[in-house]
Specification:
- The protein is mainly alpha-helical.
- Helices cover 56% and strands 0% of the residues.
- The chain is built from five helices and no strands.
- The radius of gyration is 14 Å and the shape is globular.
- The two termini are 22 Å apart.
Amino acid sequence: MTEGFDTDTLWDEFHRVVNMNSEELREYLLADASDEVGFPPDPDLGIDEVGRRVLHVLGKRKIDLTKEDLDVMRQVVDLVQTMGDLTDDDSRHELMTVGHDPLRG
């Protein structure tokens, strides 16, 4: 879907579908990782890998993007476009781990 996007278009589309700001996403990922058993002992705190990469991209300027950043941006845009705005618990959870809250307009 997004393979043909140039960097500017991908940047715009990524920031359109990621409708949670970095602080909201960070809080959601940390709360999700803590689950009911508390934080795990490993250094990544059990945070979703793609969500962590989305946070990394959100903290960057467009000119500083790497190939890996572009790959995660494509992955997120494709996921949100494929899933749409599903609001059942499992789908919403999956979308929110990449920064898209389907309950937001």
